[in-house]
Amino acid sequence: MHRTLADDLQRLPDLLQSARDFAAREVGGLAERPVARIDAAPARAPLPEVGVGAEGALTRFADRWSAGFSGSAGPRYLGFVTGGATPAALTGDWLTAAYDQNASGGGDSSATALERETLSWLRELFGLGEDHTAAFVSGATASNTVGLAIAREWLGERLGVSVSREGVGALGPVEVLSGSPHSSIGKALSVLGIGRDRLRAVPVLPGNREAVDVDRLADALDALGGRPAVVVANAGTVNTVDFDDLRAIAALRERYDFWLHVDAAFGGFAALSPTYASLVDGLDTADSVCVDLHKWLNVPYDAAVQFTRRQDLQVRVFHNASPYLGPPTGDPDFLHLTPENSRRLRALPAWFSLTAYGREGHREIVERNVALAGRLGEGIAQIPQLRLLAPVRLNVVCFTPADDPSEERVRALAKAVAASGEAFVTPTSYAGTPALRAAFSNWRTTEGDVDRVLAALRRHGAGLGPRGD
Ligand SMILES: Cc1ncc(COP(=O)(O)O)c(C=O)c1O
Protein backbone atom coordinates (compact mmCIF):
# COMPACT_ATOMS: atom_id res chain seq x y z
CA MET A 1 0.00 0.00 0.00
CA HIS A 2 1.17 3.53 -0.75
CA ARG A 3 2.99 4.87 2.32
CA THR A 4 0.74 7.91 2.81
CA LEU A 5 -2.36 5.74 2.46
CA ALA A 6 -0.98 3.23 4.96
CA ASP A 7 -0.20 6.03 7.42
CA ASP A 8 -3.71 7.43 7.00
CA LEU A 9 -5.22 4.02 7.63
CA GLN A 10 -3.31 3.74 10.85
CA ARG A 11 -4.40 7.20 11.95
CA LEU A 12 -7.99 6.93 10.73
CA PRO A 13 -9.63 7.41 14.17
CA ASP A 14 -7.54 10.58 14.72
CA LEU A 15 -8.31 11.78 11.22
CA LEU A 16 -12.05 11.32 11.74
CA GLN A 17 -11.72 13.14 15.06
CA SER A 18 -10.00 16.07 13.31
CA ALA A 19 -12.70 16.14 10.65
CA ARG A 20 -15.34 15.98 13.38
CA ASP A 21 -13.78 18.89 15.29
CA PHE A 22 -13.45 20.93 12.12
CA ALA A 23 -17.02 20.21 10.98
CA ALA A 24 -18.39 20.91 14.46
CA ARG A 25 -16.72 24.34 14.42
CA GLU A 26 -18.04 25.10 10.95
CA VAL A 27 -21.58 23.92 11.66
CA GLY A 28 -21.51 25.57 15.08
CA GLY A 29 -20.67 28.90 13.44
CA LEU A 30 -23.25 28.58 10.65
CA ALA A 31 -25.67 31.12 12.03
CA GLU A 32 -22.94 33.76 12.13
CA ARG A 33 -20.81 33.02 9.08
CA PRO A 34 -21.48 35.17 6.00
CA VAL A 35 -24.59 33.75 4.38
CA ALA A 36 -23.15 34.15 0.89
CA ARG A 37 -19.58 34.55 -0.32
CA ILE A 38 -19.24 36.23 -3.67
CA ASP A 39 -15.97 36.19 -5.61
CA ALA A 40 -14.25 34.32 -2.79
CA ALA A 41 -12.56 31.47 -4.68
CA PRO A 42 -8.75 31.21 -4.54
CA ALA A 43 -6.63 30.74 -7.66
CA ARG A 44 -6.41 27.13 -8.84
CA ALA A 45 -3.57 25.04 -7.49
CA PRO A 46 -1.71 22.52 -9.67
CA LEU A 47 -2.48 18.80 -9.41
CA PRO A 48 -0.49 17.46 -6.43
CA GLU A 49 2.11 15.01 -7.69
CA VAL A 50 2.94 13.78 -4.21
CA GLY A 51 0.14 13.83 -1.68
CA VAL A 52 0.23 15.45 1.76
CA GLY A 53 -1.96 12.88 3.54
CA ALA A 54 -5.50 13.39 4.74
CA GLU A 55 -4.59 15.67 7.69
CA GLY A 56 -2.58 17.78 5.27
CA ALA A 57 -5.52 17.89 2.86
CA LEU A 58 -7.77 19.02 5.69
CA THR A 59 -5.34 21.81 6.55
CA ARG A 60 -5.15 22.93 2.92
CA PHE A 61 -8.91 22.84 2.58
CA ALA A 62 -9.23 24.94 5.74
CA ASP A 63 -6.61 27.42 4.51
CA ARG A 64 -7.69 27.80 0.91
CA TRP A 65 -11.35 26.96 0.58
CA SER A 66 -13.48 26.77 3.70
CA ALA A 67 -13.80 30.52 4.26
CA GLY A 68 -15.28 30.98 0.80
CA PHE A 69 -18.05 28.43 1.27
CA SER A 70 -21.50 29.93 1.77
CA GLY A 71 -23.75 29.51 4.77
CA SER A 72 -26.30 27.76 2.56
CA ALA A 73 -27.07 25.24 5.32
CA GLY A 74 -27.76 28.11 7.70
CA PRO A 75 -30.86 29.99 8.79
CA ARG A 76 -30.82 33.11 6.60
CA TYR A 77 -30.01 31.55 3.26
CA LEU A 78 -33.36 32.08 1.56
CA GLY A 79 -32.32 31.66 -2.08
CA PHE A 80 -33.88 29.09 -4.43
CA VAL A 81 -35.60 26.54 -2.17
CA THR A 82 -32.75 25.44 0.05
CA GLY A 83 -33.07 23.12 2.99
CA GLY A 84 -30.35 22.55 5.55
CA ALA A 85 -29.37 19.31 7.21
CA THR A 86 -30.92 18.34 10.52
CA PRO A 87 -28.41 16.96 13.05
CA ALA A 88 -29.75 13.45 12.50
CA ALA A 89 -29.66 13.79 8.71
CA LEU A 90 -26.05 14.92 8.88
CA THR A 91 -25.22 11.92 11.06
CA GLY A 92 -26.88 9.61 8.56
CA ASP A 93 -24.98 11.26 5.73
CA TRP A 94 -21.61 10.73 7.42
CA LEU A 95 -22.43 7.08 7.97
CA THR A 96 -23.51 6.77 4.33
CA ALA A 97 -19.95 7.61 3.32
CA ALA A 98 -18.47 5.46 6.07
CA TYR A 99 -20.40 2.36 4.95
CA ASP A 100 -20.12 3.23 1.25
CA GLN A 101 -22.89 0.85 0.21
CA ASN A 102 -24.01 0.56 -3.38
CA ALA A 103 -27.80 0.88 -3.24
CA SER A 104 -28.31 -0.27 -6.82
CA GLY A 105 -29.40 -3.74 -5.84
CA GLY A 106 -29.79 -6.27 -3.08
CA GLY A 107 -28.23 -9.62 -2.44
CA ASP A 108 -25.25 -8.62 -0.34
CA SER A 109 -26.57 -6.20 2.27
CA SER A 110 -29.69 -5.08 4.12
CA ALA A 111 -28.98 -1.51 2.99
CA THR A 112 -31.52 -1.69 0.17
CA ALA A 113 -34.14 -2.97 2.63
CA LEU A 114 -33.47 0.15 4.71
CA GLU A 115 -34.02 2.19 1.56
CA ARG A 116 -37.35 0.41 0.98
CA GLU A 117 -38.41 1.04 4.59
CA THR A 118 -37.58 4.74 4.18
CA LEU A 119 -39.51 4.96 0.91
CA SER A 120 -42.56 3.43 2.54
CA TRP A 121 -42.35 6.02 5.36
CA LEU A 122 -42.08 8.82 2.83
CA ARG A 123 -45.06 7.51 0.90
CA GLU A 124 -47.09 7.63 4.10
CA LEU A 125 -45.74 11.06 5.03
CA PHE A 126 -46.99 12.52 1.75
CA GLY A 127 -50.38 10.81 2.00
CA LEU A 128 -49.86 8.38 -0.86
CA GLY A 129 -51.29 4.87 -0.86
CA GLU A 130 -49.97 1.39 -1.53
CA ASP A 131 -50.52 1.83 -5.27
CA HIS A 132 -47.56 4.17 -5.45
CA THR A 133 -44.09 2.68 -5.57
CA ALA A 134 -41.04 4.84 -5.08
CA ALA A 135 -37.35 5.25 -5.82
CA PHE A 136 -34.64 7.66 -4.74
CA VAL A 137 -33.13 10.04 -7.27
CA SER A 138 -30.71 12.95 -6.95
CA GLY A 139 -33.18 15.85 -7.00
CA ALA A 140 -36.48 17.18 -8.26
CA THR A 141 -35.16 17.65 -11.80
CA ALA A 142 -34.22 13.97 -11.91
CA SER A 143 -37.56 13.02 -10.33
CA ASN A 144 -39.50 15.04 -12.91
CA THR A 145 -37.42 13.46 -15.67
CA VAL A 146 -38.13 9.94 -14.46
CA GLY A 147 -41.84 10.71 -14.02
CA LEU A 148 -42.07 12.08 -17.55
CA ALA A 149 -40.08 9.15 -18.93
CA ILE A 150 -42.75 6.84 -17.51
CA ALA A 151 -45.41 9.13 -18.99
CA ARG A 152 -43.69 8.82 -22.37
CA GLU A 153 -43.82 5.02 -22.14
CA TRP A 154 -47.50 5.25 -21.18
CA LEU A 155 -48.21 7.37 -24.26
CA GLY A 156 -46.61 4.59 -26.29
CA GLU A 157 -48.85 2.05 -24.61
CA ARG A 158 -51.91 4.11 -25.49
CA LEU A 159 -50.79 4.46 -29.11
CA GLY A 160 -49.73 0.82 -29.48
CA VAL A 161 -45.97 1.41 -29.73
CA SER A 162 -43.06 0.79 -27.37
CA VAL A 163 -40.99 3.93 -26.93
CA SER A 164 -38.33 2.15 -24.89
CA ARG A 165 -37.72 -0.20 -27.83
CA GLU A 166 -38.56 1.86 -30.92
CA GLY A 167 -37.52 5.30 -29.74
CA VAL A 168 -39.46 8.48 -29.18
CA GLY A 169 -39.92 8.98 -32.94
CA ALA A 170 -42.57 6.23 -32.82
CA LEU A 171 -44.81 8.53 -30.80
CA GLY A 172 -45.12 11.46 -33.14
CA PRO A 173 -45.66 14.89 -31.57
CA VAL A 174 -46.42 14.75 -27.86
CA GLU A 175 -48.72 17.18 -26.04
CA VAL A 176 -47.62 18.28 -22.57
CA LEU A 177 -49.93 20.74 -20.83
CA SER A 178 -49.18 22.77 -17.72
CA GLY A 179 -50.09 26.05 -16.02
CA SER A 180 -46.90 27.23 -14.28
CA PRO A 181 -44.32 24.50 -14.77
CA HIS A 182 -40.89 24.66 -13.17
CA SER A 183 -38.06 25.08 -15.68
CA SER A 184 -36.93 21.51 -14.98
CA ILE A 185 -39.97 20.26 -16.89
CA GLY A 186 -38.66 21.82 -20.11
CA LYS A 187 -35.25 20.35 -19.40
CA ALA A 188 -36.77 16.91 -18.82
CA LEU A 189 -38.69 17.11 -22.11
CA SER A 190 -35.48 18.01 -23.90
CA VAL A 191 -33.58 15.11 -22.30
CA LEU A 192 -36.39 12.71 -23.16
CA GLY A 193 -36.43 13.64 -26.83
CA ILE A 194 -39.97 15.00 -26.56
CA GLY A 195 -38.73 18.55 -27.01
CA ARG A 196 -39.04 21.69 -24.92
CA ASP A 197 -41.43 23.24 -27.44
CA ARG A 198 -44.01 20.51 -26.83
CA LEU A 199 -44.78 22.09 -23.45
CA ARG A 200 -48.04 24.05 -23.91
CA ALA A 201 -48.79 26.79 -21.42
CA VAL A 202 -52.36 26.59 -20.18
CA PRO A 203 -53.77 29.88 -18.78
CA VAL A 204 -53.71 30.28 -15.03
CA LEU A 205 -56.48 31.59 -12.78
CA PRO A 206 -56.92 35.37 -12.73
CA GLY A 207 -55.83 37.59 -9.84
CA ASN A 208 -52.22 37.00 -8.85
CA ARG A 209 -52.52 33.25 -9.26
CA GLU A 210 -50.12 30.69 -10.72
CA ALA A 211 -52.56 27.77 -10.45
CA VAL A 212 -53.88 26.39 -13.71
CA ASP A 213 -57.38 27.34 -14.80
CA VAL A 214 -58.93 23.87 -14.89
CA ASP A 215 -61.66 24.91 -17.35
CA ARG A 216 -59.00 26.13 -19.78
CA LEU A 217 -57.09 22.89 -19.24
CA ALA A 218 -60.26 21.00 -20.15
CA ASP A 219 -60.56 23.12 -23.31
CA ALA A 220 -56.94 22.34 -24.23
CA LEU A 221 -57.50 18.62 -23.70
CA ASP A 222 -60.72 18.77 -25.66
CA ALA A 223 -58.88 20.34 -28.59
CA LEU A 224 -56.66 17.25 -28.83
CA GLY A 225 -59.57 15.29 -30.25
CA GLY A 226 -58.98 12.18 -28.14
CA ARG A 227 -55.18 12.03 -28.54
CA PRO A 228 -53.58 11.00 -25.22
CA ALA A 229 -51.52 13.70 -23.52
CA VAL A 230 -49.44 14.48 -20.45
CA VAL A 231 -50.59 17.00 -17.85
CA VAL A 232 -48.00 18.40 -15.47
CA ALA A 233 -49.75 19.72 -12.39
CA ASN A 234 -47.90 21.96 -10.00
CA ALA A 235 -48.16 21.60 -6.25
CA GLY A 236 -46.14 24.57 -5.05
CA THR A 237 -44.87 27.01 -7.68
CA VAL A 238 -41.46 28.55 -7.02
CA ASN A 239 -42.51 32.21 -7.09
CA THR A 240 -45.69 32.28 -5.05
CA VAL A 241 -46.24 28.66 -3.94
CA ASP A 242 -49.55 28.31 -5.68
CA PHE A 243 -51.23 24.92 -6.00
CA ASP A 244 -53.18 23.47 -8.89
CA ASP A 245 -56.51 21.93 -7.91
CA LEU A 246 -55.34 18.31 -8.14
CA ARG A 247 -58.77 16.77 -7.52
CA ALA A 248 -60.40 18.85 -10.24
CA ILE A 249 -57.60 17.98 -12.67
CA ALA A 250 -57.84 14.28 -11.83
CA ALA A 251 -61.60 14.42 -12.41
CA LEU A 252 -60.92 15.44 -16.03
CA ARG A 253 -59.66 11.91 -16.63
CA GLU A 254 -63.27 10.79 -16.82
CA ARG A 255 -63.47 12.73 -20.09
CA TYR A 256 -59.90 12.87 -21.40
CA ASP A 257 -57.02 10.48 -21.72
CA PHE A 258 -53.90 11.85 -20.00
CA TRP A 259 -51.05 10.97 -17.69
CA LEU A 260 -51.07 13.12 -14.57
CA HIS A 261 -47.61 14.06 -13.30
CA VAL A 262 -47.44 16.26 -10.21
CA ASP A 263 -44.37 18.35 -9.45
CA ALA A 264 -44.67 18.61 -5.67
CA ALA A 265 -40.94 19.23 -5.20
CA PHE A 266 -41.42 21.22 -2.02
CA GLY A 267 -45.18 21.85 -1.99
CA GLY A 268 -45.70 18.16 -1.18
CA PHE A 269 -44.59 18.97 2.37
CA ALA A 270 -47.91 20.76 2.90
CA ALA A 271 -49.22 17.22 3.50
CA LEU A 272 -47.35 17.14 6.83
CA SER A 273 -49.50 19.85 8.37
CA PRO A 274 -53.22 19.48 9.07
CA THR A 275 -53.47 23.23 8.43
CA TYR A 276 -52.08 23.05 4.89
CA ALA A 277 -52.69 19.44 3.81
CA SER A 278 -55.78 20.40 1.80
CA LEU A 279 -53.44 22.16 -0.67
CA VAL A 280 -52.26 18.76 -1.88
CA ASP A 281 -55.62 17.04 -1.68
CA GLY A 282 -55.72 14.60 -4.58
CA LEU A 283 -51.97 14.02 -4.76
CA ASP A 284 -52.64 10.30 -4.44
CA THR A 285 -54.55 10.32 -7.73
CA ALA A 286 -51.40 11.22 -9.69
CA ASP A 287 -49.71 8.74 -12.00
CA SER A 288 -46.30 10.10 -11.04
CA VAL A 289 -45.20 12.47 -8.29
CA CYS A 290 -41.95 14.36 -7.68
CA VAL A 291 -40.94 15.28 -4.12
CA ASP A 292 -37.57 16.72 -3.20
CA LEU A 293 -35.96 15.81 0.10
CA HIS A 294 -32.96 18.15 0.06
CA LYS A 295 -35.46 20.97 0.19
CA TRP A 296 -37.98 20.72 3.02
CA LEU A 297 -37.01 17.41 4.60
CA ASN A 298 -33.67 19.05 5.44
CA VAL A 299 -31.41 16.23 4.39
CA PRO A 300 -28.07 17.13 2.75
CA TYR A 301 -27.77 17.23 -1.03
CA ASP A 302 -28.66 15.20 -2.93
CA ALA A 303 -31.94 13.38 -2.47
CA ALA A 304 -35.42 13.32 -3.96
CA VAL A 305 -38.12 10.72 -4.49
CA GLN A 306 -40.01 9.63 -7.54
CA PHE A 307 -43.39 7.99 -6.96
CA THR A 308 -45.45 6.23 -9.60
CA ARG A 309 -48.46 3.95 -10.01
CA ARG A 310 -46.94 2.26 -13.04
CA GLN A 311 -43.75 0.59 -11.92
CA ASP A 312 -44.19 -1.87 -14.79
CA LEU A 313 -43.69 0.96 -17.30
CA GLN A 314 -40.84 2.37 -15.22
CA VAL A 315 -39.03 -0.97 -15.45
CA ARG A 316 -39.59 -1.03 -19.19
CA VAL A 317 -37.82 2.31 -19.51
CA PHE A 318 -35.02 1.90 -16.99
CA HIS A 319 -34.26 -1.81 -16.71
CA ASN A 320 -30.63 -2.71 -17.07
CA ALA A 321 -30.77 -6.43 -17.66
CA SER A 322 -27.42 -8.10 -17.92
CA PRO A 323 -26.17 -11.47 -16.74
CA TYR A 324 -24.10 -9.89 -13.99
CA LEU A 325 -26.86 -7.58 -12.70
CA GLY A 326 -29.81 -9.95 -12.92
CA PRO A 327 -33.21 -9.38 -14.48
CA PRO A 328 -35.86 -7.14 -12.92
CA THR A 329 -38.06 -9.12 -10.55
CA GLY A 330 -41.50 -8.46 -9.01
CA ASP A 331 -39.77 -6.16 -6.53
CA PRO A 332 -37.12 -4.77 -8.86
CA ASP A 333 -33.70 -3.65 -7.70
CA PHE A 334 -33.32 0.12 -7.80
CA LEU A 335 -30.97 -0.02 -10.77
CA HIS A 336 -33.99 -1.01 -12.88
CA LEU A 337 -35.99 2.07 -11.84
CA THR A 338 -33.92 5.20 -12.44
CA PRO A 339 -31.18 6.46 -14.78
CA GLU A 340 -28.46 5.58 -12.29
CA ASN A 341 -26.96 2.16 -11.86
CA SER A 342 -24.46 2.31 -8.99
CA ARG A 343 -25.11 4.97 -6.41
CA ARG A 344 -24.82 5.81 -2.72
CA LEU A 345 -27.33 4.74 -0.09
CA ARG A 346 -29.35 7.91 -0.46
CA ALA A 347 -31.98 6.88 2.08
CA LEU A 348 -29.84 6.94 5.21
CA PRO A 349 -30.01 10.69 6.01
CA ALA A 350 -33.80 10.66 5.55
CA TRP A 351 -34.08 7.49 7.65
CA PHE A 352 -32.09 9.13 10.44
CA SER A 353 -34.10 12.35 10.37
CA LEU A 354 -37.47 10.62 10.29
CA THR A 355 -36.37 8.28 13.07
CA ALA A 356 -34.98 11.10 15.18
CA TYR A 357 -37.81 13.63 14.84
CA GLY A 358 -40.75 11.69 13.40
CA ARG A 359 -43.65 13.10 11.46
CA GLU A 360 -44.25 15.49 14.34
CA GLY A 361 -40.79 17.05 14.25
CA HIS A 362 -40.91 17.56 10.51
CA ARG A 363 -44.43 19.00 10.70
CA GLU A 364 -43.09 21.57 13.18
CA ILE A 365 -40.34 22.62 10.74
CA VAL A 366 -42.87 23.09 7.93
CA GLU A 367 -45.31 25.08 10.06
CA ARG A 368 -42.58 27.25 11.60
CA ASN A 369 -41.16 28.04 8.15
CA VAL A 370 -44.61 29.05 6.91
CA ALA A 371 -45.13 31.31 9.92
CA LEU A 372 -41.70 32.88 9.34
CA ALA A 373 -42.49 33.56 5.68
CA GLY A 374 -45.66 35.31 6.86
CA ARG A 375 -43.60 37.39 9.30
CA LEU A 376 -41.19 38.44 6.54
CA GLY A 377 -44.11 39.29 4.25
CA GLU A 378 -45.67 41.51 6.93
CA GLY A 379 -42.33 43.20 7.54
CA ILE A 380 -41.73 43.85 3.84
CA ALA A 381 -45.19 45.40 3.55
CA GLN A 382 -43.97 47.99 6.09
CA ILE A 383 -40.84 48.94 4.09
CA PRO A 384 -41.78 51.88 1.83
CA GLN A 385 -39.11 51.05 -0.76
CA LEU A 386 -40.43 47.52 -1.32
CA ARG A 387 -43.71 45.93 -2.27
CA LEU A 388 -45.06 42.38 -2.17
CA LEU A 389 -45.93 41.00 -5.59
CA ALA A 390 -48.27 38.31 -4.31
CA PRO A 391 -49.79 37.24 -1.02
CA VAL A 392 -47.54 34.94 1.03
CA ARG A 393 -49.33 31.64 0.47
CA LEU A 394 -46.92 29.26 2.16
CA ASN A 395 -43.15 29.51 2.53
CA VAL A 396 -42.00 31.92 -0.20
CA VAL A 397 -42.12 35.72 -0.17
CA CYS A 398 -42.06 37.36 -3.62
CA PHE A 399 -41.27 41.08 -3.57
CA THR A 400 -39.72 43.87 -5.62
CA PRO A 401 -38.65 47.51 -5.41
CA ALA A 402 -41.75 49.69 -5.07
CA ASP A 403 -40.41 52.10 -7.68
CA ASP A 404 -39.13 51.05 -11.09
CA PRO A 405 -38.68 47.32 -10.44
CA SER A 406 -36.15 46.84 -13.22
CA GLU A 407 -33.97 43.76 -13.47
CA GLU A 408 -30.96 45.92 -12.77
CA ARG A 409 -32.37 47.30 -9.53
CA VAL A 410 -33.56 43.89 -8.41
CA ARG A 411 -30.11 42.38 -9.02
CA ALA A 412 -28.43 45.30 -7.29
CA LEU A 413 -30.56 44.77 -4.20
CA ALA A 414 -29.91 41.01 -4.20
CA LYS A 415 -26.18 41.65 -4.53
CA ALA A 416 -26.09 44.25 -1.77
CA VAL A 417 -27.96 41.94 0.61
CA ALA A 418 -25.66 39.03 -0.28
CA ALA A 419 -22.54 41.18 0.13
CA SER A 420 -23.71 42.19 3.61
CA GLY A 421 -23.40 38.52 4.61
CA GLU A 422 -26.69 38.82 6.47
CA ALA A 423 -29.00 37.05 4.04
CA PHE A 424 -29.28 35.56 0.59
CA VAL A 425 -32.33 35.94 -1.67
CA THR A 426 -32.52 35.16 -5.38
CA PRO A 427 -33.94 37.08 -8.34
CA THR A 428 -36.87 35.90 -10.42
CA SER A 429 -39.53 37.27 -12.69
CA TYR A 430 -43.16 37.09 -11.69
CA ALA A 431 -45.96 37.96 -14.14
CA GLY A 432 -43.42 39.91 -16.18
CA THR A 433 -42.05 41.88 -13.22
CA PRO A 434 -38.45 41.37 -12.08
CA ALA A 435 -38.57 40.37 -8.42
CA LEU A 436 -36.84 38.69 -5.51
CA ARG A 437 -37.81 35.52 -3.71
CA ALA A 438 -37.15 34.59 -0.11
CA ALA A 439 -37.87 30.89 0.44
CA PHE A 440 -38.09 29.38 3.91
CA SER A 441 -37.21 25.71 4.19
CA ASN A 442 -34.39 25.54 6.71
CA TRP A 443 -35.00 23.89 10.09
CA ARG A 444 -32.77 26.42 11.90
CA THR A 445 -34.54 29.64 10.97
CA THR A 446 -36.08 31.64 13.82
CA GLU A 447 -38.03 34.88 14.24
CA GLY A 448 -34.75 36.56 15.17
CA ASP A 449 -33.35 35.55 11.77
CA VAL A 450 -36.34 37.05 9.97
CA ASP A 451 -35.81 40.29 11.86
CA ARG A 452 -32.16 40.34 10.74
CA VAL A 453 -33.24 39.73 7.12
CA LEU A 454 -35.74 42.58 7.42
CA ALA A 455 -33.07 44.88 8.82
CA ALA A 456 -30.79 44.04 5.86
CA LEU A 457 -33.61 44.66 3.39
CA ARG A 458 -34.46 47.95 5.07
CA ARG A 459 -30.83 49.04 5.04
CA HIS A 460 -30.13 48.10 1.43
CA GLY A 461 -33.60 49.00 0.17
CA ALA A 462 -33.18 52.55 1.47
CA GLY A 463 -31.32 53.62 -1.67
CA LEU A 464 -34.17 52.44 -3.90
CA GLY A 465 -36.51 55.35 -3.22
CA PRO A 466 -39.93 55.23 -1.55
CA ARG A 467 -43.16 53.69 -2.74
CA GLY A 468 -45.44 56.21 -4.38
CA ASP A 469 -48.69 55.20 -2.56
C1 LIG B 1 -41.24 23.04 -8.09
C2 LIG B 1 -39.82 22.65 -8.35
N1 LIG B 1 -39.55 21.65 -9.21
C3 LIG B 1 -38.29 21.28 -9.48
C4 LIG B 1 -37.21 21.89 -8.90
C5 LIG B 1 -35.80 21.44 -9.23
O1 LIG B 1 -35.17 20.93 -8.08
P1 LIG B 1 -33.67 20.38 -8.08
O2 LIG B 1 -32.81 21.59 -8.09
O3 LIG B 1 -33.57 19.61 -6.81
O4 LIG B 1 -33.47 19.52 -9.28
C6 LIG B 1 -37.43 22.93 -7.99
C7 LIG B 1 -36.31 23.64 -7.37
O5 LIG B 1 -36.47 24.64 -6.69
C8 LIG B 1 -38.77 23.31 -7.70
O6 LIG B 1 -39.03 24.29 -6.83
UniProtKB/TrEMBL annotation:
Keyword Transmembrane: no
UniProt xrefs under SUPFAM superfamilies: PLP-dependent transferases (SSF53383)
Family matches, as InterPro entries: Aromatic_deC (IPR010977), PyrdxlP-dep_de-COase (IPR002129), PyrdxlP-dep_Trfase (IPR015424), PyrdxlP-dep_Trfase_major (IPR015421), PyrdxlP-dep_Trfase_small (IPR015422), Pyridoxal-P_BS (IPR021115)
Lyase listed as a keyword: yes
Keywords from the UniProt entry: Decarboxylase, Lyase, Pyridoxal phosphate
Necessary cofactors: pyridoxal 5'-phosphate
Listed Pfam families: Pyridoxal_deC (PF00282)
Highest taxon, organism lineage: Bacteria
Protein family (similarity comment): Belongs to the group II decarboxylase family.
Protein name: Pyridoxal-dependent decarboxylase
